[in-house]
Predict the 3D structure of the following.
Amino acid sequence: MILRARAELDRELAAIRERMLVLGERVATTIDDSLRALRNMDKKLAEAVIAGDAELNEMRFEIDEACQSVIATQQPAAGDLRAVVAAMHIVVELERMGDHAAGIAKTVQLMGGDRFERLPETLERMAARTQDMLGQVVEVYAKADYERAYNVALLDDKIDDSYQSLTHELLQDMLEDEKSTTRGLYLLFVGHNLERIGDRVTNIAERVIFMASGKMRELNPEPGDARVS
Amino acid sequence: MDERLVDSSDRVVSLTETPDMVAHDQPGSRTETNGAPQERTLETRDLRVYYGDFLAIRDVDLDFLSRKITAIIGPSGCGKTTLLRSLNRMNELVPIARTEGHVMFQGQDIYAEHVDPVEVRRRIGMVFQKPNPFPKSIYENIAWGARIHGYKGELDALVEESLKRAALWEEVKDKLDQSGYSLSGGQQQRLCIARAIAVRPEVILMDEPCSALDPVATFRIEELMRELASIYTIVIVTHNMQQAARVSDFTAMMMLGEDKAGEMIEYDETNTIFTRPADPRTEDYVTGRFG
């Protein structure tokens, strides 16, 4: 029998990574569900999204506990430590994305009226980009591909552009047609949630870069942020 | 008190007066860490140590910054202890050992002609893996070394001061006449540290000082090292990577080269070594996958 050094640490790190990927997938599904609920004004599905948020929170705490446990019992260092620290940050971002999906679902519950003939094209485009970006960042996390993580983060600019266009279009509609005001405001709220998801994907990309290269780089700078590089 | 590195002759190479127990700043070399200049107490340049024909460590260039703790880590047999022992000419006690290159202490080569190795070892003290108190009373363990080095001051005060600095005074002040052997392992090691301090060194070398101690005694020694680092420059060799991470400011990573000679492969701030080392061999070692 050959004993491999740090086999237990490797097992625990692999288990954390595995759980992170499952959570990432669940969050992506939840966001997809929230958007389907919106398109179809499916209040039942919206309710399921809201109820499912508790499960995402539970998964987050389980991963958090596993990270604390591996630090306390295995004393990871260097790349192992960065992987654990990155997981602890990323898990929060994923869980919050679940909250944004629940936010969209709550909007559906508040909105009256029939199903949409079709959502504004800008909103659909924004949703597609956000979902694509999330899928990509989960993949770069799985592969610890920090070079591609930079590119994923860049996609957030397009989401921000879409959000600006959406805001402009909806305000225009509201000005032109008073009856569209209520729905317009709700859709703006949906757009806001998608925009925040894009920001969180960028935060995850930063953490992947940190995890894989040891470098911290602000990819989603706020105005006046000193860490902008 | 005479602080010459040479002893009785008049061929004085260096004179540094240290009028009290506190080691003073010396006009030594400076190096930069994160852009800030820092004074170096010890430097090795092209340091090589042979045991007979066997090259044990090769071309080590390393700076030890003043009043900082530097840890030397690396797998067994990579030359950590050899490097440590070359810093105060302790290797000379091994008959077949031969040293080449330079070890500069406050700008002076400790291997230069006329330098007295006994004086070098007083100024650069050593604490060993296994506590090794003298078979004498606690008091004499401290007083003896100072006495033979010609200490002319008040011995009682020196004993008390040294034991206080080693955080042992409160535990032994009422039994100074008892044997050093009557103390626990951790206390014995602190006694050895007190003994090293008593001869007024500027550098303390520690070779696995906690490997024979239980965790609580280990943490006490580590805490003591932190206290002492405000006065002394400390170099520690340890196999315990968590200990190196906990106590040191800087870490030097050593490895065996292909020809089995030990080499220094990376040196950086300890935080950097344990979070984002540059050399993949360091990464493998500090994550426990090699060595």
Q: What stands out?
A: The helical segments of chain A are 7-40, 43-74, 78-110, 121-143, 146-154, 156-176, 181-213.
